[in-house]
Amino acid sequence: MGNDEKWSFKKSDLITIPNLLTYLRIILIFPFAFYFLSENYIPAVICIIISGLTDCFDGFLARKLNQVTPLGKILDPIADKFTLIAVVVCMVIYVPVVLPALVTLLLKDVLMLLGGMDLINKGITPPAAKWYGKVGTVVFYVCVSVIIFLKAVLKIENFALDVTLLSVTAATMLFALYQYGKIYFRLIKEHGSK
Fold this sequence. Notes:
Number of strands: 0
Radius of gyration: 18 Å
CATH architecture: Up-down Bundle
CATH superfamily: CDP-alcohol phosphotransferase transmembrane (TM) domain
Structural class: mainly alpha
Helix content: over 70%
Number of helices: 8
Largest sheet: none
CATH topology: Four Helix Bundle (Hemerythrin (Met), subunit A)
Number of domains: 1
């Protein structure tokens, strides 16, 4: 199978269980942003929790059901990036001073997306998601849910806690970026030596 065939999409790829979960994750961005900006935080948290669960299970199900598709490999990180952008915008509106931590998260995801696109353009298959990438995503979802839950249910607004949680998230995501960066440069080097 050549690289052109590897990245071609089939109609059957559109309707797989993992891809349906990814579509759901993209759709959930809209009610999340609506509820969050309407200060209706409980439904916003529910949207983020469901989104996080679909992100945890789509890759697992793709492998378990033998439904790994080129479309899924592209859609999954795009859904992650769109979700992150929505949460970043909402969180900056909620706590403007956490902008530097959130920009770090956004920058990491943009760099990873550009790196993946560059690999595809060079005919190199991007690596599958690694454990450190998934940990970063899970930490992100948990921390955002905790911040929103504290404000919505317990009426607790603690700037130091918000910054701490977002800093932990940024640290895990930067670690993932570093690890993926090593893989990216190794793949580029191996491709160049062929």
